Amino acid sequence: MQKTVSIWFELVGVPLQQYYVDVQGIRTRVLEAGEGEALILIHGTGGHLEAYARNIRGLAEHFRVITYDMVGHGLSDKPDRPYTIDYLSDHLIDLAKALGLEKFHVSGESLGGWVAAWTAAHHPEWVGRVILNTPGNITNKPDVMQRVKESTIRAVTEASYENVRSRLEWLFYDKSFVTDELVHIRYGIYTRPEMKKAVYHIVSVQDWEIRKHYAWDPSWVGKIQSPTLILWTDHDPTGTVEEAELLHRWIPHSRLHVIEGAGHWPQWEKPEEFNQVHVDFIRGRLD
């Protein structure tokens, strides 16, 4: 039986705004709520800002929460080029500039975590605290790379509710959280004509010849000086807790927190714990 989760119910009554902003020529969809220090939330491969629908209310009580569709994703523009980690990171920095930010905290899930880490390592002047939320396959396992690539392409090029649901269910420990509403939203995005070409750019970092330039490695990860929280789960399909501990050793000033009873989307399956850990870490209560 599906969980009774409604995206609109999660957001009803929350003072928020959804809008588009020009980011160096990329029309970018943004949703924000709250006031204070900026916290930017970044979704994963093939995702969109609705991935954080269950977190906006709680986090906006403490921060100016900003979530967006990465370039090439969701309802943002989809230029005809590979969406490499440096390109996605540059888009994040340019978004911050367009929004008038001088510094921000950042929390990224899966691919978004990879982008967050890369940004912290290469643009440290922009980044406060960093949360790497199930950043995904840090040991570059070929089977995981293939699964992400094939399932994402299939969900777009052979778009059906069944294929989209299958792609989403892989992310969850409790698959009853994959509601019809969530499937319909993603299906609506995946059936947009421009996605047919963009999907190959989205999964380009699953090809080793491209990935090798950005692969998780202590040579660049060790440059992260921002206080960093590695947020993992006990049922992440892309990587084990032992891999999280490896990343923990690579990153100076990092902490590791494991959420139990969740898969690759702890922000959706365990939103209360997810939110509280963010608040405690950013406020320095976990140092």
Walk me through what this model shows.
There is one protein chain. The mean pLDDT is 96. An eight-stranded mixed beta sheet has the order 1-2-4-3-5-6-7-8, sandwiched between helices. Helix 3 (85-98) packs across helix 4 and helix 5 runs antiparallel to helix 6. The termini are far apart. It is globular, with a radius of gyration of 17 Å. It has a single domain, classed as Alpha/Beta hydrolase fold, catalytic domain (Rossmann fold, 3-Layer(aba) Sandwich). Helix content is 40%, strand content 18%. The protein has helices at 7-11, 56-60, 85-98, 111-122, 142-157, 161-169, 180-190, 195-202, 208-211, 218-221, 241-250, 266-269, 271-282, and strands at residues 16-23, 26-33, 38-42, 64-68, 104-109, 127-133, 228-233, 254-259. It has 13 helices and eight strands. With 287 residues, it is of the alpha/beta class. InterPro entries: AB_hydrolase_1, AB_hydrolase_fold, Epox_hydrolase-like. GO terms for molecular function: hydrolase activity. Pfam families: Abhydrolase_1 (PF00561). Residues 38-271 form the AB hydrolase-1 domain. Keywords: Hydrolase.
